[in-house]
Here is the input.
Amino acid sequence: MGEKLHPFDDAVALSTVPGAPTTGRTTDAYANMVGPYGGITAATMLRAVLDHPELLGDPISLTVNFAAAIAYGEFTVEARPTRTNRSTQHWLIEISQDGAVTTVATAVTAVRRETWSAGELAMPQVPAFDALERTVFPEFIAWAQNYDLRFAEGDLTMTDPQPSEDSTSTLWLKDIPARPIDYPALASMSDAFYPRVFLRLGQMVPAGTVSLTVYFHATTAELAQVGAGPVLGTAQAARFSAGYYDQTARLFSAEGTLLATSNQVVYFKA
Amino acid sequence: MGEKLHPFDDAVALSTVPGAPTTGRTTDAYANMVGPYGGITAATMLRAVLDHPELLGDPISLTVNFAAAIAYGEFTVEARPTRTNRSTQHWLIEISQDGAVTTVATAVTAVRRETWSAGELAMPQVPAFDALERTVFPEFIAWAQNYDLRFAEGDLTMTDPQPSEDSTSTLWLKDIPARPIDYPALASMSDAFYPRVFLRLGQMVPAGTVSLTVYFHATTAELAQVGAGPVLGTAQAARFSAGYYDQTARLFSAEGTLLATSNQVVYFKA
Here is the structure.
């Protein structure tokens, strides 16, 4: 072929050999502190569904349970439809390494139909993408180098961090290099908000996503309209309690269309 | 024994015979329009985890994918730990009937530790439980008869329904008869908000939950403090689009402690 894949497509690429399990592998570009970035794992599991020959429709929901860190290198991905109805399909996806499960996901796909529609949640009013400075994350957070992140609020000040009473971050997100938004990209961006506990405490503490759920509101036509973005994201925690907290995140098109909502529960130590 | 079980405990009760699959059965008390009430199915799947001899810790998250309606009668419930770590445990739970999967769930349980804690989301200011009238749902919605539901906003007016620009309902919930709150009760109450699309359109239309996720914030000590409630619930949709919408719900103790947050994606026809 000769054409170089986008780093995102390279990271979620799966290899299928007839009669053998489907495999993927981690890439340096989307490494996190311990194992790969959770967003890329979520996108990879969704990729396995989208690549499946029996796929029906488009993604409606995805839940990824991070049972153990994925070791750098190769892994097996098994996606299978657990139930196929007339217009909806239910999926179970597992990643394993050396025979042990590291990640378990479920997904729902469906053939969408035109219905009455309404966006109830308004997009936060923030300066335009071009009016904001890019926040460059420290080099050791490899995955973040693939995103042009421009904070309107809740940036993590690396130089003089302060505790905050509000865990909200609102920021523009855009792939580097530019890449048209698709469902795996939305899954990955849903996890691109640094841990809310850092913002509240004004310091980095051990934290890791335990379970991530993404609801896809955008139709394929809407995604085509968004093109390569940018996308506006906003995330906030509701409660920090006894080692765990939640995060609600929303991703909007620049025109204010709610593309995806996501929630995650995060382990932390502080 | 002779002591009569609470209808909720009766509905989620499982039967285990060594060497045979665990079974449950639907009860008339928690019937919905087609099949059992989704909240009782979620609670039953959590019950299967909590009853499991290898259980580690308390529930952190639960995601239930409703793949097909459960027929009234007996069903098989299989819960198995997919990965057990030092302080967290990951679960896969399946309900099947006649060998076909109807419902697939994942859960995370964990041993909680004391940490820095903070509730960021404030409880809505509403009149007290005793200051509001109970809304009695039509008799054909059997499951709702098990809840004393008192709306502060977003009641479904049965007599003269009107479309609304806001899909928010905020209400007190309490088991009938009174029953101390536990994790299965929170799972069930997370689904006790009638479909948001009814409120927006001012009419009942076909609607059904496709996937439900619950995050449990409350510790067992906090649940003991809540006792038999009531609990304050608030729910809202963010977007209705091409046959599906989401619902975010929060459950607070009367003292304002956030006990659980939940999200669901719902199929609708309108």
